[in-house]
């Protein structure tokens, strides 16, 4: 979790967040859901606190980018009534993530009041219900793996569809770091049996289930006025639970020597490039252009992207699980006067820059997102060409490239191979701002959904056998029998 001290120290060293003449052309926001019930006690659902968290975040981003008096108002974006062609809001087909996205959208565009009234041909006035409630659609992507609530499930990478990512993540369970931690924390976890014995058996209490054990206790500390054997969960014990959960999930989400393990971050990078590139190519004042890309997904995707973008070099805190309602933002900005004076032409990509910001937990006026440098650099404002070139080094936005990286040959990969795709458009956005040869939006959506589900559904624990590692099918989440990784 990103510490405030580290954020402040970095902010002092960073360039100013905005120049006085700066114009925001568009943004891409990747957001985690709000507070939810525990994974190990299904059905998992978004709580009232969670809804409050994501709504507050939506309201903050309204004040930053959307409202008429927004501090960093997006060029040509409708301030009060949502214009659906300007927004792209997506989330996996899942009650927690989709509901979070819907509530966030209501913070971004609250009921429009009088602006939602319409005068009909006969002179009567029609008033939209609920004070002009705005119906901002959340585009859910259904897959076979999402037929049941993915927030109830603890089986992660098996639903991703990326075979090599599954193998790479599973290899963590054979690593020396994992095995040493498993042995060294055995007594620590066993001592917690009186706290969690209604959900976990003694044999299940180990670092193998480090995240699900932490998750259960964390939810209880937030919502339960009393916890059985609460005296065993001191602040120091809880800190170790959180630290071990971070270690467990980071090991499953990223490995510098095996980039495919972070396939979720690679696909996200391509989606960011594709969306910002489309915004960049349109005239700066064109009202029908997508100005805000908003995607809700799992914390495992945050971790995967953090690793690929070299953010742990900024702070080790970027190797931890981010808090509920966390968000990262990519701002597309310019100081060029053509952004406001030439409505017919796109802004020259040479005049455009990108800024990355992150909020660990719900963004608010008292907890604003902080700008961080990407790719091992010092500056927080990168020229578009530099940003696109660096992102393209690990972005996977071409169907054949995804299939090759994942080792997949069936389904969408068989179709792509038959179509004879080029397999060369990794980022699907060139540094100059021209169209790339990337995948179509429907295919990108399918792959994005598969990868997002990967970080929602969890990693299956491995059983150590003489012949090597063997995947074991997970039993129901209520019995908490498997290690969880990369959950939302």
UniProtKB/TrEMBL annotation:
State whether keyword Transmembrane helix applies: yes
Extract the Gene3D superfamilies matched here.
Phosphoglycerate mutase-like
Q: What is the annotated signal peptide range for this record?
A: 1-21
Q: Which domain of life is it from?
A: Eukaryota
Q: Where are the transmembrane segments?
A: 446-472
Keywords from the named record: Membrane, Signal, Transmembrane, Transmembrane helix
Among the GO molecular function terms of this UniProt record, one is: phosphatase activity
| Family to which this protein belongs | Belongs to the histidine acid phosphatase family.
Recorded protein name is: Acid phosphatase
Q: Which organism is it from?
A: Thyridium curvatum
């Amino acid at each position: 979790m990103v510490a405030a001290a580290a954020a402040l120290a970095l902010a002092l060293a960073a360039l100013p967040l905005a120049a006085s003449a700066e114009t925001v052309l568009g943004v891409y926001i990747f957001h985690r859901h709000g507070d939810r019930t525990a994974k190990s006690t299904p059905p998992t659902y978004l709580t009232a606190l969670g809804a409050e968290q994501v709504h507050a975040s939506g309201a903050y981003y309204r004040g930053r980018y959307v409202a008429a008096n927004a501090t960093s108002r997006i060029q040509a974006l409708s301030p009060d009534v949502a214009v659906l062609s300007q927004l792209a809001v997506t989330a996996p087909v899942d009650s927690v993530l989709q509901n979070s996205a819907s509530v966030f959208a209501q913070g971004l565009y609250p009921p429009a009041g009088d602006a939602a009234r319409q005068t009909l041909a006969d002179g009567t006035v029609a008033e939209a219900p609920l004070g002009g409630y705005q119906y901002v659609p959340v585009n859910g992507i259904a897959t076979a793996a999402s037929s049941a609530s993915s927030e109830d499930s603890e089986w992660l990478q098996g639903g991703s569809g990326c075979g090599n990512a599954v193998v790479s993540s599973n290899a963590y369970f054979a690593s020396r770091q994992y095995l040493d931690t498993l042995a060294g924390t055995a007594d620590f976890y066993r001592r917690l049996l009186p706290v969690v014995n209604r959900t976990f058996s003694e044999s299940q209490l180990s670092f193998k289930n480090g995240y699900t054990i932490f998750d259960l206790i964390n939810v209880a500390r937030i919502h339960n006025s009393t916890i059985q054997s609460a005296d065993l969960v001191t602040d120091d014990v809880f800190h170790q639970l959180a630290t071990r959960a971070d270690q467990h999930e980071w090991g499953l989400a990223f490995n510098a020597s095996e980039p495919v393990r972070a396939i979720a971050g690679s696909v996200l990078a391509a989606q960011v490039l594709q969306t910002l590139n489309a915004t960049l190519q349109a005239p700066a004042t064109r009202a029908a252009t997508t100005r805000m890309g908003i995607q809700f997904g799992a914390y495992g995707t945050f971790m995967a992207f953090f690793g690929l973008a070299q953010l742990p070099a900024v702070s080790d805190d970027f190797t931890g699980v981010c808090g509920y309602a966390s968000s990262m933002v990519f701002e597309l900005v310019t100081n060029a006067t053509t952004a406001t004076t030439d409505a017919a032409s796109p802004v020259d990509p040479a005049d455009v820059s990108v800024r990355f910001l992150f909020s660990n937990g719900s963004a608010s006026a008292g907890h604003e997102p902080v700008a961080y440098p990407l790719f091992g650099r010092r500056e927080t404002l990168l020229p578009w060409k530099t940003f696109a070139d660096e992102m393209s080094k690990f972005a996977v936005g071409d169907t054949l490239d995804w299939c090759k990286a994942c080792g997949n040959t069936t389904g969408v990969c068989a179709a792509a191979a038959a179509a004879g795709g080029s397999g060369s458009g990794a980022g699907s956005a060139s540094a100059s701002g021209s169209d790339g040869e990337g995948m179509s939006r429907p295919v990108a959506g399918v792959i994005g959904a598969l990868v997002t589900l990967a970080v929602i559904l969890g990693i299956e624990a491995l059983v150590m056998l003489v012949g090597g590692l063997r995947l074991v099918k997970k039993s129901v989440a209520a019995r908490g029998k498997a290690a969880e990784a990369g959950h939302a």
